[in-house]
Amino acid sequence: MVGVRRRFKLADTAQQIVGGFLLAGPFVVTEEVWTLAASMSLLQTLSTVFIVVGIGYGALYKADDRDPDAESEVGGIPVRFVSLVLVAYGSVLALALAFNAPNTFVGGGGERARLLGVDVPIRTVRVTVKAVSVGAVFSVVGAATADSLF
């Protein structure tokens, strides 16, 4: 499919979502992930972001025969890749919140801040961001695989 401009469609995002949720689920509900996340530094959290981006790009454009220059872009970045990264993080966050994982594994004590009009415990938000970054490493594999296979 090299050189052929393939439009990115809603069905492509749907495939990514299925794959992202499939592999994210087991990591969201595992206490070990939340314990690990609580002990991670900012540098370690940022390294997981780079890992997600690297895996996503590699799976979409290096392991497959897609040409990123032949795809629709937003801000110079292929829309398919933007969607993949958003799905990877979004699916983990959605499952974490749906299962009430942050309150279950972190609790709600400590300092609070207003986030989107809601009072939230700062520590819970920090650990949740870190746990989502860990889960996204696996979610991006599922999302990219589903996108590439179907």
Mind sketching the topology for me?
Elements: H1 10-28, H2 31-39, H3 42-62, E1 73-74, E2 77-78, H4 79-98, H5 101-105, E3 112-115, E4 118-121, H6 122-149
Antiparallel strand pairs: 1-2, 3-4
Organism: Haloplanus vescus
Protein name: Putative integral membrane protein
Pfam families: DUF2391
How would you concisely characterize the structure shown here?
This protein has helices at residues 10-28, 31-39, 42-62, 79-98, 101-105, 122-149; strands at 73-74, 77-78, 112-115, 118-121.
Keywords:
two-stranded antiparallel ribbon
Low-confidence runs: 1-5
The major beta sheet can be summarized as: 2 strands, antiparallel
Strand order of the largest sheet: 1-2
Helix-residue proportion: 55-70%
Number of strands: 4
The averaged pLDDT comes out at 87
How large, in whole angstroms, is the Cα Rg? 17 Å
Note the beta-strand portion: 5-15%
Work out the helix count: 6
Tell me the domain tally: 1
Globular, elongated, flat, extended or rod-shaped: what is the shape?
elongated
Q: From N to C, what is the helix and strand string?
A: HHHEEHHEEH
Please give the alpha-carbon distance between the first and last residues. Answer: 14 Å
Backbone structural class: mainly alpha
InterPro entries: DUF2391
Organism: Haloplanus vescus
Keywords: Membrane, Transmembrane, Transmembrane helix
Protein name: Putative integral membrane protein
